[in-house]
Amino acid sequence: MKKVVMFIAALCVVTVAGALYASAGKVSAAAPTYTLTVNGKLMQGSKSELMPYEQKGTVLVPLRATAEALGYKVSWVAAEKAVSVEDRIQSALVKNGSTQVKFTGKLKIINLSQDMELPVPAQTKKGTMYVPASFFEPFFNEVVVKEGNVSISAQMSSIQ
């Protein structure tokens, strides 16, 4: 009987120690780091705050730096308290702390106007607004997050 009690006690100690070790590893794990590539060019941020980061499984990228690298116009719309991102065929309004984005199409033939819900809210860190990388998909960009790199590339097509 003593051997059974000792075995059970030892098993409990090993189980608790293993659980504590596993949970300690999760707490001390560093957040994954990402690089940002736009149209095949690696974005070299001189400041670490301009690099993508992950929140709740979603990778966020700096809005202005990414949009301007894609050739979009970025501006502040004071009346809306929002940032406007604009290309030749549509514009988008995004507000800090919101998951809602309003796209407004400029074409008469194709209606590109839509409301989009982001997986996590747009947010500002040290004066830089970040949005989920998926924000750029309705602008007809390919967005790929793989192996520590966020790649956003304009989809190009031509009629021949």
UniProtKB/TrEMBL annotation:
Copper amine oxidase-like N-terminal domain sequence ranges: 38-146
Signal peptide limits: 1-22
Keyword presence, Signal: yes
InterPro entries, A to Z: Cu_amine_oxidase-like_N, Mao_N_sf
The entry's keywords: Signal
Gene3D superfamilies given in the database record: Copper amine oxidase-like, N-terminal domain
Protein name: Copper amine oxidase-like N-terminal domain-containing protein
